Amino acid sequence: MRQVEVQSEHRRNLEASVVHSNIANERRGMNIGAALAGMFIIGGFAAVMTGHEGAGYAAIGWAAAQVSGTYLVAWWGKRKQLQMKREQE
Description:
The chain is mainly alpha-helical. It has helices spanning 2-49, 53-88. It has one domain (2-88).
């Protein structure tokens, strides 16, 4: 009986470790994405101010598309997941 308890505790610890690792990876990805978007926005404004309107607006547009695209993909995925749960019930 003790061995079953030890195995169960070990499995719970592994699952908790995986969850914490996934959260850390997602947070790291969000931080990198935010930094890239911020750099493109700042660079785009700098380009517009120095007379490079085309490149500047393209950089700002890319950053806006990146941020909004990430939001929409996450929203769509969550919506699809909720729909699948409803269908299983």
